[in-house]
């Protein structure tokens, strides 16, 4: 069974630009969560989607948004990038909301 | 607000030593997971414990869920350099109608020196 696939693996963007990250969950998993990980802050929860609906949201500004498609694939978007948005962005899929999470390899975003 | 506190935050030991990592909360969880993460990669699920008092073993790793389902521990026997990484605990509290939260601890960075 294929694991969670995140694309791209690495991304370099300029301040003020926007970025879209993609996540394909494990087949049959309907819940997708997104996390931001930085050395100083650890793993910070962004949001969780189940059946195309956002079920949970973390404490991030409105520049961070996401969506989930009918095939459970998910995208997250960050607009007006700031230097502090540089981080490893992780996607995790679960069978249902807030159960065992299976992570992708992450997308390393660098904002310059 | 539900919180999971892990201790210690950093641990540097010699190969062959034993160690224990703790994960504590004042909240009750329906299940608790342990993950290991290597630099630049996503966390990998090691184990899920569900029942209060449950003990699970994975080779040299022993995981225990507290009787009240508020805390957990990870014990590694005879640590090896391959055990080096970031260990994360996560507590799951599920609500109704597909709601709930997965709360992560801050992580324990383990370095095992040869």
**Count of helical regions of chain A:** 0
Structural class of chain A: mainly beta
Distance between the termini of chain A: 37 Å
- Biggest β-sheet strands, sense, barrel of chain A: 7 strands, mixed
Residue-averaged pLDDT of chain A, rounded?
A: 93
The greatest inter-chain interface is formed by:
A-B, 29 and 23 residues
Instruction: Calculate the terminal CA-CA distance of chain B, rounded to whole Å.
Output: 40 Å
- Rounded radius of gyration of chain B (Å): 14 Å
Helical content of chain A stands at under 10%
Stretches with pLDDT under 50, minimum 5 residues of chain A: none
- The string of secondary-structure elements of chain B, in order, is EEEEEEEEEEE
**Radius of gyration of chain A, taken over Cα atoms and rounded to an integer in Å:** 13 Å
Structure characterization notes:
The complex is a heterodimer of chains A (112) and B (114). Chain A is globular. With 112 residues, chain A is mainly β. Helix content of chain A is 0%, strand content 54%. In chain A, the strands form 2 sheets. In chain A, strands 2, 4, 5, 6, 9, 10 and 11 form a 7-stranded mixed beta sheet that branches. In chain A, strands 1-3-8-7 form a 4-stranded antiparallel beta sheet, with no helix packed on it. With 114 residues, chain B is an all-beta fold. Chain B has strands at residues 5-7, 10-14, 19-24, 31-37, 44-49, 55-58, 61-65, 71-76, 85-94, 100-104, 108-113. The interface between A and B is medium-sized, with 29 and 23 residues.
């Amino acid at each position: 069974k294929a694991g969670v696939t995140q694309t791209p693996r690495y991304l370099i963007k300029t301040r003020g630009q926007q970025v879209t990250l993609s996540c394909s969950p494990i087949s049959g998993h309907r819940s997708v969560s997104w996390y931001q990980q930085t050395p100083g802050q650890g793993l910070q929860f962004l949001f969780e989607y189940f059946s195309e609906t956002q079920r949970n949201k973390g404490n991030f500004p409105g520049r961070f948004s996401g969506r989930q498609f009918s095939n459970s694939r998910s995208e997250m978007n960050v607009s007006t990038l700031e230097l502090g948005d540089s981080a490893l962005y992780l996607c995790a899929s679960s069978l249902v909301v807030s159960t065992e999470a299976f992570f992708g390899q992450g997308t390393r975003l660098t904002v310059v | 607000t539900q919180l999971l506190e892990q201790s210690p935050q950093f641990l540097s030991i010699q190969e062959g030593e034993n160690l224990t990592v703790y994960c504590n909360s004042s909240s009750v969880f329906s299940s608790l997971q342990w993950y290991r993460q290597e630099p630049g990669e996503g966390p990998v699920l090691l184990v899920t414990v569900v029942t209060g008092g449950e003990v699970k073993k994975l080779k040299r790793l022993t995981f225990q869920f507290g009787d009240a389902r508020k805390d957990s521990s990870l014990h590694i026997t005879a640590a090896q350099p391959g055990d080096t990484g970031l260990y994360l605990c996560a507590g799951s509290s599920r609500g109704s109608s597909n709601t709930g939260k997965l709360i992560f601890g801050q992580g324990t960075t383990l370095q095992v020196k040869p």
